[in-house]
Amino acid sequence: MDKPRLFLSPPHLSGQELEFVHEAFASNYIAPLGPMVDAFEREFADVTGIPHCLAVSSGTAAMHLALRELGVGPGDEVFASTLTFIGSVSPAVFLGASPVFIDSSRETWNMDPALLAEALEDSARHGDLPKAVIPTDLYGQCADLDEILAVCAPYGIPVVTDCAESVGAIYKGRHAGVGAKAAVFSFNGNKIITTSGGGMLASADATLIEHARKLSQQARDAAPWYQHSEIGYNYRMSNILAAIGRGQLRVLHQRVEQKRAVFERYRQELSQVPGIEFMPEAPYGRSNRWLTAIIVEPELFGATPEDVRRALEAENIEARPIWKPLHLQPVFRSAKVIGGKVAEDLFRRGLCLPSGTALTEHDISRVCAIIRACRKKH
Model pTM greater than 0.90? Predict the structure, then answer.
């Protein structure tokens, strides 16, 4: 009999979601928008402390709206983390702008504020400052937002935080994204809480969210007929998906604790293995540990991260390399990059392990046994 598949980060339903879905069906609100969407936005604002929230079809859609609201357009540049998913910056390209990629800090794996400062100083000298800065909260760990804001403030550059992976994470006592001009969240199927597909744009700026809401609904003007004075998008969230999100939101704290417990169990089993290191936790915050990420040092461990990944896959266990830096992606081959060596090194040696919140201790021990066996074979 085949061994059951261990996925990297599968959805984990609480059971409460179905209650809200039934309520949505009973009300006959199953199309985009509706009372579940309104409630999900209010409840997400309560959880995060970011007062104005807009539920949309994806995190990418939320980023697109945020950058559009900031006036990003053809000929502009945006500075962004290089160690991230392409959805962080593809919306800038949609708008005709060019990304400039900033390397990671080895201490946090997130955007290096010192490198960002150097890049902005150089841009200021040449009179071509970026339109926005987009740091990513990698694998559930917040970027050093206050430092990034302090670097950007003298130039008046807005910061949009990519919090797609950091729902439930804490930075200096506040929720991820608090303090940025706008924050973008994802509820994709593999995230710590999910609506199957969906995102949220959050901001303390009520005007920004109000206009982004209009754009997300095809920019329809206030008229009895369909009238449009600007181009918008069909980015609305379904009332059904929002119902799922409301159920998921109620177990967010529990999911964070479960993710952190998964990380801790891996750390207990593998931290003494020569050549294995874990993603550090920044002293300024509390990661949600969305994914447990390790570094495999081939010279010490005796096998490469790819050897480990293949060994796990042979046992029907999904693992995945750390994000390939965007400055190494073929589509961005001509993009500018500030630094890059840290992100390249993390990509070369990094691996994400199965991190689902429903993993058992037996599951984790099984993964760890396979990893240790890789070392014995080399």
Answer: yes
